[in-house]
Design brief:
single chain, alpha/beta, Collagenase (Catalytic Domain), 4-stranded mixed β-sheet, 5 helices
Length: 165
Amino acid sequence: MTVDYGTPDALDAAACDLVSATLHRLLDAPTLFPIQRTLHPKATFFQTAEVTIIFVDDAEIKELNSTWRGKDSATDVLSWPAVNIDDPLETFLGDIAISLETAGRQAAKRSWSLMDEVCLLAVHGFLHLLGHDDDEDDDAARMRVLERYAVGKPLTLDGDVNAEA
């Protein structure tokens, strides 16, 4: 899978490589696709799949959140799937926007590095591109399992591994 960075200067090459590696690790997850997606791609699909990630500040993500979701506030990650859940996946999966400012604040709450949080947010956005939805508790729990799998550690809150967020 190819990960294109729309803002290549926002992070150094090593950081971008870490994000890409985390997303690739997720591709081996046994329950990668949401139960709502009835049309699964062939096993070779991800060899040619693409996703674009941009890194923005809180002002930019607030504007995007307002434009696309009608919410006048900053958020951590937004994603725009290329297809609806009922349609077959296309080679281009969609776009992800991550606020580095919000990621920094959330990383501090988790006692994580900024890059750990950016990787988690990239995975979260990627799961939405595949059709996962975290509006319902069961779906959110399935996403958390996949997020833990990809980042390789508990999703701590304030450094407490028993208080996942």
